[in-house]
Design a protein that fits this description.
There is one protein chain. The chain is mainly alpha-helical and 239 residues long. The chain has nine helices and six strands; from the N terminus they run αβαβββαβααβαααα. Strands 1-4 form a two-stranded parallel sheet. The longest helix is centred in the middle third of the chain and has 20 residues, at 135-154. The two termini are 29 Å apart.
Length: 239
């Protein structure tokens, strides 16, 4: 595809599609909701929708959790639409079948990249902690264990496009935004279509710095005739 065609495609995508749909898979209490709150830079609870796209204003405890067909959004960044599914238990194929059907229905036009996120790295540090060693050495040992898990994931026939680990997502005084920036960057890099990549970047309402960095990084590949798209991309991320 030429640079001009790419710019037109990117512009058309941004006009036609206003949301990015993300499927999150993982066991209960794995820190998924906390992670998504950090992605959207909010402390609010999400708004869950039923099968008819009607908001469930009175959300009882547990309602809508792990129901893959009930999307939810955060008011701080409604351009992200999330779906939640529990992890897969050995010997139970029901959840796997539901996820496969969901992906088949939603991902008709393009391949859907998979990003592996190892949450609660701080818990792993606690598990391997040796009181005879200082924190840095224990952190190094935990990183080695994490690397083993990552190598196992990437050794599969269909490995994820990227992998990241996060820690202390619950700590408001931590560096969670730096970690989220890394996650978003790796997600953007995993999108092999430049138009989709630009669309993904442009909806980062809570990350102006990333919008600017990615515009500078990717817009030149679209050619010299797309300066207006660069402006459009940035303004889309600022709305």
């Amino acid at each position: 595809m030429s640079s001009i065609e790419s710019s037109i495609s990117a512009s058309e995508l941004r006009k036609k599609y206003k949301h990015f749909r993300i499927l999150v898979i993982g066991r209960a209490n794995a820190g998924k909701t906390t992670l998504l709150k950090r992605v959207c830079n909010t402390d609010e609870d999400p708004c869950i929708y039923d099968e008819k796209n009607k908001a469930l204003l009175d959300i009882s405890p547990g309602r809508g959790i792990h129901d893959i067909n009930r999307p939810f959004v955060f008011a701080s960044n409604p351009q992200f639409i999330f779906h939640d599914s529990p992890g897969f238990e050995a010997g139970d194929e029901s959840q796997l079948t539901k996820v496969q059907a969901f992906i088949k229905e939603r991902a008709r036009a393009t391949d859907s990249p998979v990003i592996a996120i190892l949450t609660k790295f701080d818990d792993l540090i606690t598990q391997v902690y040796d009181t005879r060693l200082d924190y840095d050495k224990n952190h190094e040992i935990a990183e080695a264990e994490q690397k083993k898990m990552e190598d196992l994931l990437f050794s599969h026939k269909f490995p994820p496009m990227a992998g990241v680990y996060v820690e202390d997502m619950h700590n408001n005084n931590g560096n969670h935004q730096e970690q989220i920036k890394t996650l978003i960057e790796k997600t953007a890099e995993s999108l092999d279509d430049l138009s989709l990549k630009m669309l993904f970047v442009s909806i980062q309402e809570n990350n102006l710095e990333l919008c600017m960095e990615c515009a500078a990084k990717y817009v030149p590949f679209l050619g010299p005739d797309v300066k207006m798209w660069e402006v459009s991309c940035l303004s889309g991320g600022l709305r």
